[in-house]
Design goal:
By secondary structure, this protein is an alpha+beta fold. It contains 4 helices and 2 strands; from the N terminus they run αβαβαα. The relative contact order is 0.16.
């Protein structure tokens, strides 16, 4: 089911970047978003940071580093996310 227009006026109580763990891959050769701006954004979000030499399209030039960060983030998110108990069958 597609999302509705009502989603545009939805209210949140706390931004996810403040409450949930996050990871950030800084591309140190990025010309679109300066690395210092990336560092500031990732620090503000409290992200776990990895820096990789690469351009804005770091997923093309450094796919192994991107995949490693995704794996690290997935493992970290699973480890920190409280899951509700499974219903009894």
């Amino acid at each position: 089911m597609p999302w509705g227009v009502a989603a545009l006026s939805g209210k949140i109580s706390e931004p996810a970047w403040r409450a949930k763990p996050s990871w950030y891959l800084i591309a140190t050769e990025d010309k679109a978003i300066p690395p210092d701006a990336q560092r500031a954004m990732s620090k503000r979000a409290g992200s776990t940071v990895v820096e990789v030499k690469g351009s804005h399209a770091v997923y093309v030039s450094q796919p192994d580093a991107v995949a490693a960060l995704i794996q690290q983030a997935a493992a970290g998110a699973i480890a920190t996310e409280p899951f509700p108990p499974k219903p009894k069958s």
